[in-house]
Design a protein that fits this description.
single chain; alpha/beta; 6-stranded mixed sheet; 39% helix; globular; binds iron/sulfur cluster
């Protein structure tokens, strides 16, 4: 373990130890069949009836630039497109095997146009680097591309409006694993109202590609509740072990 990674484990508040032999394997819990997610709404599906507008999603595109432009000009959610500074499309390596999915932009993300910046972003970077993933090697996006005013929870209609964009991003990226950070992201991706404590520590699957999905805490929550950093570290090790198993050829 290099000194840089040690520094990031320190930032996570994780005690480091030196194994006498090789590191222990991370046990992989049973697949949580009941928590397997439904398929995402297709981008060319009819607009949800709960939509606050008459907006109809675009058909999927195979062009990142086209998708980015569509998001930038989106006015599907009347309140959000009026109150946002800009849309926050997502950032990272478009060939990434890891897709990190958060809830929605906060104030700083809305200002900068990039997800997970500020202190929470720095902690997310530390969390990823602790499992060997520099930020630039993953792709990071949110369920919602616009900031809900006052950082309120996304409304169901807003999530329905915006999910086709995430669906298109997943189709373009073809990630090997999804890491859902925070309760809101996990609940919306898995279409459940189960508490985060029941969603973490299990292997879920998501969407038409049945992509493995692991849930962990949002870094903003961990900044407020550092006592849960150790649980987050367990989640990250579980995600890394799941990824290793997926690329080893036995994802389920
Ligand atoms: S949240 Fe998504 S669907 Fe709603 S206006 Fe923003 S980009 Fe469009």
């Amino acid at each position: 373990m290099g000194p840089l990674r040690n520094a990031y484990l320190d930032a996570l508040g994780i005690d480091r130890w030196i194994p006498r032999n090789s590191p222990p394997e991370v046990a992989i819990p049973e697949v949580a069949a009941a928590a397997t997610s439904p398929a995402l709404p297709r981008a060319d599906a009819p607009a949800p009836t709960s939509s606050p507008s008459t907006w109809t999603p675009h058909p999927p595109t195979d062009d990142w630039g086209v998708l980015r432009e569509r998001v930038a000009g989106c006015t599907a959610c009347a309140e959000l497109c009026r109150t946002r500074t800009q849309t926050v499309f997502g950032v990272g390596n478009t060939r990434a095997e890891w897709l990190v999915i958060g809830e929605a932009p906060g104030a700083e993300e809305d200002r900068q146009g990039e997800p997970f910046v500020g202190r929470a972003g720095q902690l997310l970077n530390a969390m990823l680097l602790a499992i060997g993933l520099p930020r630039e090697t993953v792709f990071i996006a949110n369920v919602l591309k616009c900031r809900p005013p006052g950082n309120r929870d996304p409304k169901p209609a807003e999530v329905s409006n915006c999910l086709p964009y995430l669906s298109n991003q997943i189709a373009l990226l073809g990630p090997k694993i999804l890491l859902a950070v925070g309760r809101i992201a996990a609940q919306n991706l898995l279409a459940t109202d189960a508490p985060l404590a029941r969603l973490r520590g299990k292997l879920h699957h998501f969407g038409e590609a049945n992509t493995p999905l692991v849930v962990t805490y949002h870094p903003a929550y961990l900044l407020r509740t550092p006592s849960d950093k150790r649980k987050a570290w367990e989640d990250l090790k579980f995600a890394r072990a799941t990824y290793s198993r997926v690329i080893g050829g036995s994802s389920t």
